[in-house]
Design a protein that fits this description.
alpha+beta; Glutaredoxin; two-stranded antiparallel ribbon; 5 helices; 19% strand; elongated; Thioredoxin-like_sf
């Protein structure tokens, strides 16, 4: 009798596990279809990093990317979000070291929404305060606008003050790109680094390339 009960319990557990896995699989498939329908981040780009090197989207294929759009004259929000981005990367790197995984498994990336002021030299100076592997990209105003449109980033320069300085109102989000270059998730300002790192780990563990 005990054997029968134990067998029935094991079968019930296996059935529950299968149903839970199937539910998760369907949820991931539905999420993938939603992201495909949004068509965020489609197409390539050609910008320049803080060292003057030309970069395109294809350079990051095969790598996980956490992407943020902002500008160097931002007084508080952008520094806070870039610091958060850096802490997320450090958390993932530390976990990777403990598991013997690749250290540079995720690339932090910053794209300016203010190319008129954010030159290569300005970006190089700005990045000294953030994660050492953070890459920053700039380019012509049209090239930058094109990338912003691909991710539906809102960016609007405000009126200049007496010194000609101005702020740029823009979307605030971190974008997670998978190794195939497609958008997998995004995180608003309210998300903590722990929540983001946990989400990124989940995506890494369940990753499947989006079908073309």
């Amino acid at each position: 009798r005990l054997g029968v009960v134990a067998g029935a319990g094991a079968a019930a557990g296996a059935a529950w596990w299968y149903l839970e896995e199937e539910k998760q699989r369907r949820r991931r498939a539905r999420r993938q279809e939603e992201l495909r329908a949004l068509a965020l981040g489609q197409g390539s780009f050609q910008l320049v990093d803080q060292t003057g090197r030309t970069r395109c989207k294809e350079d990051f294929l095969g790598t996980w990317v956490l992407l943020y759009f902002g500008f160097t004259h931002c007084p508080d929000v952008c520094p806070e979000e870039l610091e958060k981005l850096g802490r997320v990367v450090e958390m993932l790197e530390e976990e990777g070291r403990q598991k013997g995984a690749q250290k540079d498994a995720i690339q932090p990336l910053f794209i300016t929404v203010d190319p008129e002021r954010d030159s290569v030299d300005a970006l190089a100076r700005y990045l000294r305060d953030f994660h050492p592997r953070l890459l920053a990209l700039t380019g012509s105003p049209e090239a930058v606008r094109q990338v912003g449109r691909a991710y539906r980033v809102y960016a609007q320069a405000g009126p200049p003050d007496a010194n000609g300085d101005y702020l740029v109102d823009h979307s605030i989000a971190l974008y997670l790109l998978g190794p195939d270059g497609h958008l997998l998730d995004y995180y608003g300002r309210s998300k903590s680094e722990e929540q983001i790192a946990r989400s990124v780990r989940h995506h890494m563990g369940t990753y499947q390339p989006l079908p073309s």
